[in-house]
Structure formats: C-alpha cells, structure tokens
Amino acid sequence: MKEAILYEKLEEGKVKCNVCTRRCIIHDGKRGHCGTRINQNGTLYTLIYSKCCSVAADPIEKKPVFHYEPGSLVLSFGTLGCNLRCRHCQNWQIAHVDPDLEGSGLNEISPDEAVRLAKTYDCQGIAWTYNEPSIWLEYSLDTAKLCKENDLYTVYVTNGFTSFESLDMIGPYLDVYRVDLKGFTNDFYRKVCRINDFSPVLQSTERALRKWNMHIEVVTNIIPTLNDDEDQLRDIANWIKKELGENTPWHVTRFVPYLNFSHLPATPIATLERARKIGLSAGLHFVYIGNVPGHPGENTYCYNCEKLVISRSGYSISEYEVNNGKCAFCGASLNIIDNRTPVC
C-alpha cells in the first residue's frame, strides 16, 4: 500500500478523500466508494498503486481520440475500481470492484517500467483507461511526470467526475482529456450512473481546457429511451460549442446491450445519424459516429472545403490529408495535433 494524496485527517480517526467530487468521509478500517482507498488508523492508503489488470498497445483511435496524433499507438493501462457504478458498464468486472479482490490477479508495473514498456512496443504515449483513471491519481501522476521526460504523450479516458484539486495535480502533465458526457440531465445520471448531479463533469472538462489547455474530445454513448431524445442531444452539442469550441470532436457511439440494460436494443444507426446531424446543425465541425465500423461518419471532413481529409475504417487510417493540423486542400485549421507521421 502507498499513502494516498489529496485527503484530510478528521476527528475520531476519520479521513476525507478529495480525489473526486464524492469527497468520501471514510471511517477507520473502511474504504471509499471506489473501493480502492482504505483508512488505516487515520491514514488514507491507495490499494492500487502500480497494480494493473489490463495492459495493451492500442491505436489512439480506440479511446476514441481522433484529433490527437492520429495513427499513433498508445500503451493503455487499467486497474480495479471506479467512482461511478454505471448500470451499462462494459468493464464492470474491473470497474465495479469487489473489495475481496484486493490485489488478486494484478500485475505490478512501476512508473519506470510503464515508460520502458511504451518504448519497447513503439508506443508514442500512455493512456489510463478501461476504468476511471482519476482514482489512480498517485500512479498516473508519477508515470505522467516520467512520460514528459521521455517525450511520451499522456491520455485520461475519464468520466470527468474528478475534483479540481486532482485535476490541477495531473494538469501540467496530461495532454488529452477524453471525457464521457453520458447524458445531459441529472435524472439520466441518477438512473444510469447513480449520482445526483452531473455538473462536476462539465466543470472539470471546462477547467481541463481553460486552465490546462488539454486536448478535449467528448464521447456520448447513445442509449435508446434514456439519452437519445433531441433535447439532451441538442443540449450536449450546444454546451460543447459554447464551452469547448466548435472544433472539439464529439463522438456519438452505438450502445450495445449490457449488464442492467441488457433488455434494451442496440442503438439504431438512424439514431446515431440523427445525433450527428444535431451536432453539425448546432455548429460543431467534427461529429463522429462510433461503434459502426465502415460508416462514413467515422471519417474527418474539412468543414471549410468539405473534402475528405482522414479516411478511417475502425481503428485504421487509409487516407490522411492533413498538414500541421490543417486541411491539406484549403488550409483550414482542424484542431488536429499531428507531431508524428500517421501510420496508413
């Protein structure tokens, strides 16, 4: 175990964890909501520092991130636990951690070893993903610092339910903030994610951009009957344009029946196309359809000259007409960071 950061000691041996906006008050011998932090005699410890259950060299497009180093490989790490309990979670076996599973089946990978592995497998960056990375703050922070020393980019694939203090600690070392905006009402978040107020997700994302100038991409998994109504989709699109900018990518992805929502159908492609149209009509320049391999909505088109600039099929790029983040045909800025040559 390693002593946690961002916590307060309280009276009677209790502690207050400040890593996420739940700000759990934890009694001696107990764990916080995420299941990964334990109070022992008034000191808070993380149980997951350097403990990995998933490691893979992924295309950056798999996160999905389409406008940051397209075609590059990112070494992806996951561990146990999450600060949400989403009822349709695809990774519930690791995210909905069982406290009795402490340490079982996990590999110890130090920050130094993580960087070494990234270089060994020709990855240009490291991502913390598969479960919520903010609860892995101590490990991701130490690793991200080493990444900056070794010319590796860094990615959080996050639900955005993190505290400002946590975000500000990782902020100087984090390049990409790929955030899930799961819906746009408190009622949706209560039903699906079991939290009463989703405003912290909006606030942390705005801060990641404005204070730390991170590259932002937003994902909304469109779930039939829950967040596929025009009001929510329009509100999400309008918020992205107003607070993050018209060049911020919005990924509308296909829901697959799972866990507590196994009774619902998969998202009709027509619904995803309608969501994309809503986003474009709201003034967003880049709205992508996800989890439908081969759909033209995977591609990047220049909003100015309307030409195809990046052709994708799943996670693969076949055409790439971008120069220094700009359209190769007309020179319009596409909000694409491409310091490396994409693999086509």
What features would you highlight for this structure?
344 residues, alpha/beta, TIM Barrel, 2 domains, 8-stranded mixed sheet, 3-stranded antiparallel sheet, 8 helices, 21 strands, 24% helix
Question: How would you portray this structure in words?
Answer:
- The chain has 344 residues and is of the alpha/beta class.
- It folds into two domains: 2-46, no CATH class; 51-299, TIM Barrel.
- 24% of the residues lie in helices and 24% in strands.
- It has helices at 92-95, 111-120, 137-149, 164-170, 186-192, 199-210, 230-244, 269-281; strands at residues 2-3, 7-9, 15-17, 25-26, 37-40, 43-46, 51-52, 54-59, 73-78, 107-108, 125-128, 153-158, 176-180, 215-222, 250-254, 287-290, 300-301, 308-313, 316-320, 322-323, 326-327.
- The strands form six sheets. The protein has an eight-stranded mixed sheet with strand order 8-9-11-12-13-14-15-16. Strands 1-6-5 form a three-stranded antiparallel sheet, with no helix packed on it. Strands 2-3-4 form a three-stranded antiparallel sheet, with no helix packed on it.
- The mean pLDDT is 94.
